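Lab meeting prep.
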Amino acid sequence: MNQPIKRHPSLQPISREHHFGLLLCWKIRQGFRLNISPERIKKYSDWFWYNHLMAHFEIEEKYIFSVLPSDDALIVQAFAEHQRLKTLFESEDIPLSLELIEQELDQHIRFEERVLFNKVQQVATPEQLQLIEENHNTPFEDNWEDEFWK
């Protein structure tokens, strides 16, 4: 059995937010499993994107990714994945984009948690960790009324 990842306290709030991203992936899968219209699922995914994920990406890109050199392979991968996800959230092909968001966001979060954040917390200075902690927004609150996934 895998041991839980020991996350530095400054990274814990942003790491906890990854749970909501994984939950979005689950909700998309549930929506498809329950034959919910893709447009209805897309309304929620758009709301999630604009009310949570955009700000989450911004914090990561500005304060977490900057701990490592911009040409570090992990940072290059993380930025590329963010860009790909942004494109998918803005796509007009709703069924395909939802399917790809579900798959790629899940993989991206697991990459950040298992690989990138571990490296960041190994090399970050106390000042960098403090900056991350100071610039994290208020916790995400999922108050969407149309619970299509139930």
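Slide two material, second protein:
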Amino acid sequence: MREGFHPKSLLVLLTEVVLIGVSVFLALLANQWSDARQHREHAQASLRYFREEIVTNQQAIETRQPYHQALSREIESFLQSDAPKTLESFYSTSHYHGLEPIMFERTAWDLALANQSLSYLPPKLAYAISRVYTRQQAFQTLENSILQSFNAPSTFASQDITGLASSMKSYLIDVNIQEPELLKLYAELLPQIDAPASSAQ
């Protein structure tokens, strides 16, 4: 004989279903909160690394920029002068001690790509950071290409260095354009990096 459905047992069943549903909801909420907190921590750490790295690159440019500007003027004077176009003559009329290339730090960028922390940053800030590192990479490529050409065996095969000096002059024209532009990008980016960090504190 089937027993009737007791209202009390139905109430208990509904209560258990509600409690299970609430428990699942709270667990999902806690998991989302934990993920969000972890993402914020990754983003804040990435911003600290970016700031340190960008300041380092900024200082590297500021240190070498006066030399690059002076060397460009000295090469121009050397090419326009009546002095013999030899290395000895060039060394005696300039303060040349190498091209002083800038080796940009990019560890923070590589780390951000590896752990995908760029996706945790505001899109506008992530774009600004990416733009700076893209410009740095283009500059680094320019430096690497000129250094490779200077290290070729035929570079100093001739006593006349008119061609070499002209190449250095063309290179330094690009350098003296790109360095101020990068410094401007750094000056624009650093306050953007500091803003999320200060608001998160």
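Talking points for slide two:
The chain has one domain: 40-199.
Residues 40-199 form one domain.
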